[in-house]
Amino acid sequence: MQSYFVPDTAYDELGRGKLPEHWQSLIHFFTQTDLSDTPAPEQLRAAMLVRDVDVERPWVLDPIPFTLAPDEWRAIEKGLAQRAVLLNHIVADLYGQKRLLDVGGLPPALVYGNPRFLLGADKPQVINQTFLNILAFDLGRSPDGQWRVLADWTEAPQGLGICLENRTLSGQALPGLFEQFKTQRLANFFTATTQYLHSQAAAATHEGITVIMSPGPDHPSYFEHAYLGQYFGFPVVEGADLTVRGHTLQLKTLEGLKAVGCVLRYASSTHCDPLYLSQHGNDGVAGLVNIARKKHVHIANALGSGVLENDAFMSFLPSLCETLLNEELQLPSLASWWCGQPSAAEFVAANSAQLSVGPAFTRPELFSSTIAQYQWPQTIQRSATELAYLDVARELIQLSHAPYLDSHGQLAAGPLVLRLFVTKTSSGYSLMPGGIARVATPDKVLSKDIWIPKDTALHTLNFTPHTARDNRLRHSDRDLPSRTADDIFWLGRYLERCEGVVRVYRCLFNHVAEGELEQQLTAQTTLRLLVNLDMIPPSLGKTLLLAQQTNQDWWSTLLDFDNRSGLARLLGNIDRLANQIRERLSGDTWRMFRALTNTPSTSAWLLGSISNGISLMDGLIERLSGLSGQVQENMTRSYGWRLLELGRRLERGQFGLQLTSELVSQTSSSSHMFLLLDLCDCTITYRARYQSQPILENLLHLLLLDEANPHSLIYQVSRLQNVMHEMPLDQANDGLSDSQRILLSAYHELTLAEPDKLATVISKAGNRTQLRRVIQRLDKTFDNLSELVTATYFSHTLNPMQTQ
Amino acid sequence: MKYHVLHNTQYHYTLPVISSQQLLRLKPRNLPSRQKLLSHQIELSISGTELHEQLDFFGNCVHEVRLHARHSTLTINASSEIDVSPRDELLIDLSPPWENVQQALSFPKTPEHYSAAQFRFPSPHVDVAAAVSLARQLATPGLPLLRMAYLVNTYIYEQFSYQGGVTNVHTEVADVLHQRVGVCQDFAHVAIAIFRALGLAARYVSGYILSQSASSRPQLVGAEATHAWMSIYCPEFGWIDFDPTNNLITSDQHITLGWGRDYADVAPTRGYILGGGHQSLSVDVRVREQETS
Q: Where are chain A's structural domains?
């Protein structure tokens, strides 16, 4: 324990050599194993899991959990529940009755000078007066052993997803220890949260669903929204997925509009309603405020609740607690001096060297706040007259130190901050029996799971598991937002296109490798095909054709993965779309997507070698096929699956038409036919059936009309018929629906075609006129279907804009 | 004086709008003993419109309009009949020194002062910091507040030129101060910024003025659209409106629609559309005196 050092001035969580009881089993476990030479297996395992989850985490998880003595935990639990009640009261008053906004209440500058007090969110009616559903608190322990609240988070607290992830990792890494420690589970906390949100939703609107509103995949915490969406079973939506109609908030889904009763909000208030809450920007749902104000949707947390997320307010909490709750504030905050009061300003001016002076109404984003900022002064020398309501000073705190495993596997100590979560349940505010602990090391901040052992004395505060479970079957897929549906459809198209293009590249490499003269001709046809498929710019296509050999330049022109064009762009699109629908993908499927899009960067192939080029393409095909298999075998036959299938079938049909048109719609050599068979993955089938030099008539039959061939056109059409039949909103009042009509005409076009005529009717210029006509008509049919799908299901996905 | 106001707003879009939501602040307020709304109606050119009436934070009437029918033009006609009484003569030199008012508002001891104090802070269109040096230059110590307001009003009237098309709704106070050009809305924002920089309470008023008078009254600037001016809070006197565009204290030629911290709080129309391509907006306001019988 030589590396474990706690300064004399700081509190030692491990009791300064006299190990407290609640730490004994944990420390025993981590010191018993000889960790001096090799990192602990648990640590390796944790690191492996972190990689596997593939999330850009703000920090690394330390294998040693943090824990607290039961009596201390109980005190924190009571203190934070009281604080949640108090903060809820304050928000309710500021936006409702406004007793605090009058003489004898809060100084006007504290509220009206705070840009996060949103006048547009005024006078809401809130179900059960629950303005704050989920709150987070940052806590630190001062040298005297007292826990202090460093920050209250009331707007849209982040970290629940990280909590769940940390728990999964630490539980998996240390299963024995976890059980032996009798660690309290987090599930009850989340169940209680869900149940309460559902009850709020039901109170707001009949059959109202609950959604998570996220700022979208570009937000740094999006993975958390996706994670929680999966965990809670709530659709993750963005503002554009929602609309207000009459007195209700509606989600635009594949099945039309659906009432939303509750919004778990991860977008900040000013990004929630462009009409009422923001001057610029188009984020959010226009008119949301009005629906919330009439109690027809519950918003968790209420719009504008960020008004309390600042250090200026903290110094008023003790007196507010007495005024509003008639109680003493149980958990003290870090002392702060808001310079809107002359006495505080004078104190700050005289003592600024020992304080941290900063902006009163802005705080660093969650988690970007460093532990150091609580401990070291930020010396801004200013006079009392210069300090005003926009300034606040905070007391510096020497944080307690907690153990972590350093890079040598040794126990070390660093300053500690906790983030704890409180949720509203049917029986009041309850603290999550866990949370996130952060420990600063000399070079980074580690994250730790918090383990709280089961405490029999605590049962009154523990959640009572509900016997009456929510038995309504939740077809969350039926609430598929139109925008997500759009993404899935295009993901299907890009996947299929990618597979087609990769086959073309592979053909090219194969023929170049074989190197014979006639094969070189095929290679040139393939290059032209890549140009026509938009993979290579026409100018470069010529360069590549004329090149005598495949040198370094030839390769980097053909496959430029830094340039985000061609194949790289296709893979980039797949990556982007998979990201956007991430919460709807299983862990396995997600990993396969990652593996696919990372193939070029992870495969150790070098430019300049044909065999490496081929193995890259083989790798891509393998992963694409793996994904197809995963989707076919493991994805529920839900709307999501159908949209993916729609996209794939449409693309495969049109891609096949394009290849046929490029390669055989003019008089062509047998090498073209071989190429076509190869690109459509039909060579084996053809050889097995005809065992001869290709004859166009037979080939066309196989590629267009053979219902048993999964690459034939007629196969795509009948798959599309099946899938469209299962889609919502595709019913006609009488007779055929539009999609059925379109597909039936394609089916007839194909069945009535005569392969011998398609192959043999040739114009003077050498064009196969009948074949061309059929190809054109079919291509148009596919276009029509694509437009119909877009208009029926994705039409609300336009970008909104503001008027004056 | 009785007025009839027709306020016509037209949107034209190059592509059809699929849905549109608007916040309208077109219904004049009632002011105790100063202004009475006799009748009011709003008509939209598109049927099947949802119209929700509500009061905002400041007590202004707001209509939320929702249109779900496809359209490429939208006309909003608001018509109001208002009776405005002239303001009693103000003995502005009897108002308290501005420093006293600043003190009283910093630590308000009455509900009225407390409520006025909300208008002392920066707001989205009023960057108070930009006006600090000008405010210090104009604030003669000991000057009665309303006298100072009068001087600031005149200062803006004389030093800034009224010119449309140079500024827009997003123009910042600092730019107006630099260019010394703008329209009524810019002048109101500048005046408000000056007063707030001194720790005083100033608010933005949106309304109409009578331009073409049958009588021999002077013709006023800013009548082709909605007009804007500023209002300053003075203990004992209440809220007194100054129009820097016309260099006067308002009386019965100004019709108040509503007020807020700045333009953003009381924009007559504000909307959000899906579709639409390029848009153009035209506004026409007609204020007519009615015969008093």
A: 21-334+397-458, 483-635, 642-795
B74 in contact with A, Cβ within 8 Å? no
Q: What pTM value is reported for the model? A: 0.84
Write out chain A residues lying below 8 Å of B114, CB-based: 101-103, 108
Number of residue pairs across A and B with CB atoms under 8 Å? 91
CB A197 within 8 A of CB A233: no
Residue B50 sits at the chain A interface (C-beta within 8 Å): yes
Is A798 in contact with B64 (Cβ distance < 8 A)? no
Characterize A421-448 residue by residue with b for buried, 16 or more Cβ atoms within 10 angstroms of its Cβ, and e for exposed. bbbbbeeebbbbbbbbbbbbbeeebbbb
Per-residue pLDDT tens for A496-513?
A: 999 999 999 988 888 877
A390 touches chain B (CB under 8 A): no
**A96 shares contact with chain B (CB less than 8 Å):** no
Class of domain B2-85+267-290: mainly beta
Kindly report, residue by residue over B251-286, the tens digit of the pLDDT: 999 999 999 999 999 999 998 888 878 889 999 999
Tokens found for residue A249: 């908030």
Q: Do B2-85+267-290 and B92-266 fold alike per CATH?
A: no
Residue boundaries of the structural domains of chain B: 2-85+267-290, 92-266
Residue of A nearest to B11 (CA): A803
pLDDT at A462 over 50: no
Kindly state the tokens that stand for A778.
């079919």
Please report the ipTM that was assigned to this predicted complex: 0.93
Q: Tens place of pLDDT for every residue, chain B, 293 residues?
A: 899 999 999 999 998 888 889 999 999 999 998 999 999 999 999 877 788 899 999 999 999 999 888 899 999 999 999 999 999 888 999 999 999 999 999 999 999 999 999 999 999 999 999 999 999 999 999 999 999 999 999 999 999 999 988 888 889 999 999 999 999 999 999 999 999 999 999 999 999 998 765 555 666 666 668 899 999 999 999 999 999 999 999 999 999 999 999 999 999 999 888 887 888 999 999 998 887 65
pLDDT number for residue B145: 97
Chain position carrying tokens 């900022």: A373
Distance from CA of B275 to the nearest CA of A (A): 7
Determine contact: B109 vs chain A, CB below 8 A.
yes
A44 touching B, CB under 8 A? no
**pLDDT confidence of A414, banded at 50, 70, 90?**
very high
Cβ A440 vs Cβ A447: under 8 Å = no
Q: Report the relative pairing of strands A236-237 and A60-61 from DSSP bridges.
A: unpaired
Q: Considering only CB atoms, which chain B residues are within 8 Å of A102? A: 111, 114
Distance CA A117, CA B118 (A): 11
3 state DSSP class of A550: coil
Pick the closest to residue A87 from A292, A300, A309, A268 (CA basis): A309
Q: What's at A241, amino acid-wise?
A: D
**Residues 6+ away with beta carbon under 8 Å from B41:** B78, B79
Q: Cα–Cα distance between B172 and B185 in angstroms, integer?
A: 11
Is A246 at the interface with chain B, CB within 8 A? yes
Interchain CB distance below 8 Å, A119 and B64 = no
The token pair at A704 is 């267009």
Mean pLDDT for chain A overall? 85
Strand-strand pairing, B181-182 and B161-162: parallel
Closest CA to B188 of B169, B166, B211, B210: B169
* Chain B positions in Cβ-Cβ contact with residue A107 (cut-off 8 Å): 107
CATH number for the domain running over B92-266: 3.10.620.30
A376 inside 8 A of chain B by CB: no
- The answer to whether residues B78 and B287 touch, using CB atoms and an 8 Å cutoff, is no
Instruction: State the burial class of residue A245 (Cβ atoms within 10 Å of its Cβ: 0-12, 13-18, 19+).
Output: middle
